[in-house]
């Protein structure tokens, strides 16, 4: 199950040439993760209230083309791998006007205990929702093959 989020490039996202600064893509990946979780009924606020944090342990970005001021972008977030201790996502950012892929990315998050900072296993309350979303993702991929 991929989740699509639409973004508009604001002037403050760009450098003096009107090109998106490279760090913004990583910020937009976070937007994608939050929307992915929200789409399956999980909010970060609830996770944090339950004592779980979701820090990044790895991120990769492949810059293919530049986005510019006022471009409308389509961010596609796809769950890649899930265990009770970590989750991985893939990202594609396209320019909406022509569908050109501008950026591809990857991130890995681990689930940690908010009090201790140590990696922890996610409770069934969250894991079952994530597992079901991953199952749907695999079914969609197999149907496309």
Give me the side-by-side strand order of the main sheet: 1-4-5-6-3
Written as H for each helix and E for each strand, in order along the chain, the element string is: EHHEEEEEEH
Q: How many E strands?
A: 7
How widely separated are the two ends?
Answer: 15 Å
State the low-pLDDT regions, or none. none
Q: What is the C-alpha radius of gyration, as a whole number of Å?
A: 16 Å
What multimeric state do the chains show? Answer: single chain
| Tertiary shape | globular
SSE-based structural type: alpha+beta
Question: How many distinct helices?
Answer: 3
Amount of helix = 25-40%
**Range of strand content:** 25-35%
Mean pLDDT, nearest integer? 94
Sheet with the most strands, sense and barrel status: 5 strands, antiparallel
Outline the structure in words:
With 145 residues, the chain is of the alpha+beta class. It contains 3 helices and 7 strands. It has helices at residues 23-39, 44-49, 124-144, and strands at residues 2-8, 52-53, 56-63, 72-82, 86-95, 101-110, 112-113. The strands form 2 sheets. It has a 5-stranded antiparallel β-sheet with strand order 1-4-5-6-3. Strands 2-7 form a two-stranded antiparallel sheet. A hairpin with a 3-residue loop joins strand 4 and strand 5 (86-95). The longest helix is centred in the last third of the chain and has 21 residues, at 124-144. The chain is globular. The two termini are 15 Å apart. The mean pLDDT is 94.
């Amino acid at each position: 199950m991929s989740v699509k989020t639409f973004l508009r490039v604001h002037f403050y996202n760009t450098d003096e040439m009107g090109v998106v600064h490279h760090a913004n893509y990583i910020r937009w990946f976070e937007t994608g993760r939050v929307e992915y979780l929200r789409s399956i009924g999980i909010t970060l606020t609830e996770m944090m209230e339950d004592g779980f944090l979701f820090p990044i342990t790895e991120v990769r970005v492949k810059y293919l083309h530049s986005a510019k001021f006022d471009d409308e972008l389509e961010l596609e977030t796809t769950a890649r791998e899930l265990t009770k201790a970590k989750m991985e996502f893939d990202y594609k950012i396209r320019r909406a006007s022509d569908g050109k892929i501008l950026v591809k990315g990857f991130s890995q998050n681990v689930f940690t205990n908010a009090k201790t900072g140590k990696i922890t296993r996610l409770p069934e309350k969250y894991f079952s929702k994530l597992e079901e979303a991953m199952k749907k993702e695999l079914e969609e991929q197999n149907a496309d093959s």
